[in-house]
Each structure stands twice: as C-alpha cells, then as structure tokens.
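@channel sequence for tomorrow's demo:
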Amino acid sequence: MVILKDQSSIIKTINKLKNLVVLTGAGISAESGLKTFRDMGGLWEEYDVMEVASVDGWENNPQLVLEFYNQRRKQMIQAKPNNGHIVLAELQEEFNVEIITQNVDDLHERAGSKNVLHLHGELKKARSSIDETDVFEIEGNEIKWGDKCKKGSQIRPHIVWFGEMVPAMTIANEIVRTADYFAVIGTSLNVYPAAGLLFMVNEKVPKFLVDPETVSVASDTNMHLIKENASTGVMKMRDVLLQD
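structure tokens (generated this afternoon):
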C-alpha cells in the first residue's frame, strides 16, 4: 500500500489553479510607512503633486523632480512588506495570483509575489527622457542631474506622471478578463484609468473590496466588502477564498 504524504500538492498539479487578479493601491503601502499624496491632501512634504509628478513639473524643474524621487526611493528601501503583501504572496500556493498595482514600490516583489504588473512605473527603474522604451535598473539609489542614457539624454524616473499615457493598461485589461476572482485592495478607485479595471471584470466573478474607508462602487451582488486595512483584511479575504 502506497501512502501519499502530501495529496494536496499532487491534486494541485492535476487541477489548474484558478486565477486571482488583485488591484492594489497606495493604502497597502501606507501600512508599511510609505506616505501617499491622498494622506497629505495632495502634498508631499512641502511639494504640490503637480510640481513633482507631472510632465510640466519635469520640464519646469527636473532637478527638484529627481530629488523628490530619490527621497522616495530611500524611504522605499527602509520600508518592509506588511502582512497584506505577505498573505497575497502566500496565496500563490492556492491560486494563480496576478497583481496589478498602482504603486511604484517593490514591496509586493519583496514579499514574494511573482506576477506583478506596475501600472504607474517603478522607483527602482529609470528610462531615457527621449526614448520611453529604453528602461533599465538604477545603479545605486539615486538619479543625478547629468546622468545620461546611451543616446546622450538626461535619464528620468520610470514613473507615469500626470499628463502621460499608461502603457501597461492594455496588458492589465487582458489580465482582468481572465479573473476567476478579483480583489481591490487599498485604493479609493478615484484614479483612472486604473479604476476602470473593475468594470472589465465579468459580472459573475466574485469580487472583494478591502479598504478601511468607504469606497463608492456600483452595486454588485458578487462584491464582498471588507472595511479593514490590508494587513487584516487580506487575511479575511483569504479565509473566504479558501472556503469557496
């Protein structure tokens, strides 16, 4: 008689894992100590959002923009993934987890998530200011004024600013259409086009909304509302998912 020590792992290799698609926003990173513009009333320290996160801001004062993101990068390095990030990574054992994030930090990756799409760019990367396809990892933690790309132009943060298109939306739309479950975590759903992803999900798909604030969403019988921070709310979401 053969005794199977771990039948569950064998079953998982036979049965295709269901797709859990997750849209995350600033709220999940805020629990790790990373400030958000929403928390600061549209300000970051003494800076207005349009001074440091827009095309006009870059054209008017690129040195200020570089320093702003250098400081954000240093804060990111000091931050650690919280329980919300960690539980999402652990859910990869039970689901094919695809994370679509509006955040530019690397906390999802550091928690162990393997499939992460950054809609608004990444702090750890830079790109040419004249060729948006020339994207690369930053050497060190800073981009300095005078740092040039291979074409001789100043390099800039690989961030989608106000006034710019969101190239990753095409891929995000494709991912959302594959969802067997869809979750929105730590976002007010006020920033478009990312907020529109919720409306791309099949109406029959079970959905979760995890946020301590009241988020206005269209009535949906398949929506599970969990009015908590990500660190505790994602655990409750996990419990519901594993009972399904």
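heads up for whoever presents: The first strand starts at residue 19 and ends at 24.
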